[in-house]
Description:
Number of domains: 1
CATH class: Alpha Beta
Radius of gyration: 19 Å
Strand order of the largest sheet: 2-1-3-4
Structural class: alpha+beta
Order of helices and strands: EHEHHHHHHHEEH
CATH architecture: 3-Layer(aba) Sandwich
Distance between the termini: 31 Å
Mean pLDDT: 93
Strand content: 5-15%
CATH topology: Glutaredoxin
Shape: globular
CATH superfamily: Glutaredoxin
Amino acid sequence: xxxxxxxxxxxxxxxxxxxxxxxxxxxxxxxxxxxxxxxxxxxxxxxxxxxxxxxxxxxxxxxxxxxxxxxxxxxxxxxxxxxxxxxxxxxxxxxxxxxxxxxxxxxxxxxxxxxxxxxxxxxxxxxxxxxxxxxxxxxxxxxxxxxxxxxxxxxxxxxxxxxxxxxxxxxxxxxxxxxxxxxxxxxxxxxxxxxxxxxxxxxxxxxxxxxxxxxxxxxxxxxxxxxx
Length: 228
């Protein structure tokens, strides 16, 4: 089975839209998607663009919201942006928090691995951010998402705060940089990067080509083994 690694951040509208679109497009394909939510280290800033040393001027941010709204409408995905002043208030809290931005929800996801409900938690965290308008950096919001996913909220938070989940997040962030990802969401397939919701179709096309190549190779191998 082919494997794709997907890097994301919960408060990225591009990641939210891209992952939902990818889930639809990849359905039915023989592929394993390894989700790797990451965070934004405080040493870089609190904005998604800060993660990769980029900048988002006000005009670009305005267009970004407009374009994401079009994408959401095109694919029938519910999406609600928070007001700029709400983001500013949250950004100040993130700067004062003992955690990096998106660190706690990412650690919660890694804490859920092996429960069989990690995908439900992943979806619930995105829902909290982009449908309910909540800040997933807050422990209360993570507890809320955990309940929706059928997980024990207190147990999940306790596990999320353990050193092993911190190391899992650090490993994913290191892998994101090692794979030279330009932003989120980025899917990596056999070392090839597909960045952004507008590259999901290209990812699907590549997967289908690889699947066809595997089937052809197996057919050829089978023919060669038949008695002559």
